[in-house]
Every structure is written in structure tokens, then in C-alpha cells.
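User: Batch of two.

Assistant: Item 1 of 2:
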Amino acid sequence: MFSILRKRPQVQERLTVQIGKELQRILRTESVGVVMDANHMCVASRGVGDTNSKTGTAFFGGKFEEENTKREFLNYINSK
């Protein structure tokens, strides 16, 4: 399912949304939260030399759009 999404070059923001929408479709629910934290090798290889550069993106649907649910979800994953 996700192997198709990861094989094509694309921006992280779009990939995060595609994963969220695919989970909604498969799970048959709008209530989905996706957080992606990725290292970007292009930053390291373009002369910037920052090998620790990370970018975080998120997708929230259904109940996860509610502030309390979103905060609880983010607090949970950040505690891991």
C-alpha cells in the first residue's frame, strides 16, 4: 500500500498527507493523525553540511483536528 507512495520523488508535506488520506480510506475513519520526522540528505549534501537537519510534518483528520485530542496525541508521541 505505502510502497507506491515512497517510490516516487516528492516533498515530505505531500507524502504526509497522502499517508493520512490512505489510512483514512483503509481504516474507514476520518480520525487519523500522522506525524513524520525525516532527515533530509539534500541539506547535508549541498554544502550546508548540516547532517542533523530534520523536518517535521503532520496530518490531522476527524477527531485529531480537535485541539485537546491533537495535543494529547502529540504529547504521547513526544514522550516516546
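Item 2 of 2:
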Amino acid sequence: MIMKLLRRLIAEDRSGATAIEMGFLVALISVAMIASLHTFSNQLNNTFLISAKNLLVP
């Protein structure tokens, strides 16, 4: 009886799989954001330096 109940709960409960899938998606998006920021960091830094210099020059 208890084994039947456990099998039914394990077979029907999919909430754990959904949480794991969402965790993988969040991790993948985070890695993509970090990689893109790392790739474009020099360009972003140069853009901010140029705009800061233009603000300081009258």
C-alpha cells in the first residue's frame, strides 16, 4: 500500500523537474549575459570614457 502511494507520488509529481528546468534556464541566461559583457567590456569602457571626456571639455 505504501509502495503504491510512493510510486504514484513519484510518477505524477512533476514540480521538481520544472524547478530544475527553470534553474538551468536561469543559469544559461546568466552565463550568456556574463559572456556578452566580457566580450563588449572594452567597447563599453571606451564609450563611457569618451562621453566623460566630452562632458569635461567646455
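The helical segments are 2-12, 15-39, 41-56.
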